[in-house]
Amino acid sequence: MNALKHSLAGLAAALLLAGCGALPDKPARAALYDFGPGSTPTATAGAAAPRALPMIALAEVDANSRLDGTQLLYRLGYADSNELRPYGQSRWSQPPAQLLRQRLREALSAGHTVLGPEESATIARTEGRLPDTLRVTLEEFSQYFEAPDRSVGLVRVSATLTRSQPGGDKVLAQRSFTARKPAPTQDGPGGVKALAASSDAVVAELVAWVDAPR
């Protein structure tokens, strides 16, 4: 009898272990990405102070509905470039428009006092000064596969620089910017690196354009 009990107990344990092994794994958590830490300057003795440029108001970066979420998107240019496809296990920590605005604000701050919309309104109300406003629209932000073994981070924005006047805003300048940087690997992480590099290139062009004499 005891032998039978031991056999039954062993069989039950084996069945339990087999059942546990058959349970599905937990779904993998999507990896979250951003553009990295950005510039991390160190203090240098005798370094020249940044030039003092006029204050500038930076509006929120607009984006079309396709780019409102946090999905990492790609296009297969060699198959159907009109279809945007999301990676399943790679996501941005914030919508791309917000990540781009953070990078742009950081770059502009090297020479300007950068104001948000509310700060700009406060300055106008309390001091009577109306800083120029930079408005940016994010139009394309995807990993673009030119071939199965070759892709780039494709970033395209349009920018408008305006000046507030009693009769309404005056457009000082308007321009589109596009950058394409190669992806080191043909997957989500490679797309992240390419899109971060393309974003930095667009930001550098934007800042140079804003700072150009008019």
Can you tell me about this structure?
With 214 residues, the chain is of the alpha/beta class. The chain has a single domain, classed as Rossmann fold (3-Layer(aba) Sandwich), CATH 3.40.50. Helices cover 32% and strands 36% of the residues. The chain is built from four helices and nine strands, in the order αβββββαβαβββα. Strands 1, 2, 3, 4, 5, 6, 7, 8 and 9 form a nine-stranded mixed beta sheet that branches. Strand 4 (71-76) and strand 5 (80-92) form a beta hairpin. The N and C termini lie far apart (99 Å).
Question: Multimeric state of these chains?
Answer: single chain
What CATH calls the topology is: Rossmann fold
Integer-rounded radius of gyration = 26 Å
Average pLDDT reading? 85
Main sheet properties = 9 strands, mixed
What general form does the structure show?
A: elongated
- Count of separate DSSP helical elements: 4
Query: How many domains make up the coordinates?
Result: 1
How would you classify the helix and strand content by structural class?
Answer: alpha/beta
Number of strands: 9
The level of helicity is: 25-40%
Question: Quick one: CATH class?
Answer: Alpha Beta
Separation of the first and last Cα atoms: 99 Å
Return residue spans where pLDDT drops below 50 for at least 5 consecutive residues.
Answer: 13-23, 42-49
